Amino acid sequence: MQGHLHYDYGSGYRTEFGIATAQQAADAWEAGAQGATTKWATNLQQTTKPIVAAAIAQQGVAKQNYSAALDSGRWAAALNAVGDAGVKAAAGAKSGNYGTGISASKPKYLAKIGPLLAYIASGLPTLEGMPSGTTAAGVARATYWIQYMAAAKGL
After folding, report:
1. 13, 24 Cβ separation under 8 angstroms
2. Would you call 46 helix, strand, or coil by DSSP?
């Protein structure tokens, strides 16, 4: 059965069987997502559901699905379909997000870097007081610092 072409006066696109064109679908998807951004952010702030607990509860499912994607070849196929050029293009298109993310994360960085810098400062006098000038002394100093900094995990 032959379909009929319809003219959508609002968009200027011709469609067969009244089905949207790919361009119309993509335009509608983009417009809907942009309009939903505020609603999404508001709903996120207002939810009383335990977001983190729910994510943690799904850890087994996440591992299972990730393993299945790796084992089936789906993960590799998806990466190969995008290719290096696709990764670079997508990253370039979103490069502005990097600085935005840094600015949004600055309070978290500040909360973590302060204790770490204080920890480093408290270990330096011991390091500076250790013997130096020989290979053995250098190894001892390096070993001390590596072990000292390893103990900083979780600060």
Report:
1. yes
2. helix
